[in-house]
Amino acid sequence: MSNDCSDAKIDRLTEAVLKLTDVVMNMQVGQADMKADIADLKAGQTDLKAGQADLKTDQNTLSKRMDRIEAGVDELRQVTSANHFKVIGRISQLDERLDRVVKKTV
Length: 106
Hints:
By secondary structure, this protein is mainly α. 98% of the residues lie in helices and 0% in strands.
């Protein structure tokens, strides 16, 4: 009976060691997965930083273009205003000339 008891203890110990070995193996696999995930996260972080740098460059480029557009709009307004006054002046001249022609013919 003592032999049966020892065999049962050995079987339980063997089973416990096998379970513990399985747990350790799963932990090692989990650790490897975590390391791979961390490497992926670091690569993603690097990509994000590169994307941020690209966005800053694009923002600076757009800002410069907007400044040029605003300067162009201001220049266009000045030219339009100047041309408007020239056109109004020319219309007044033609109106006066038409009035003189009409008065001469009457």
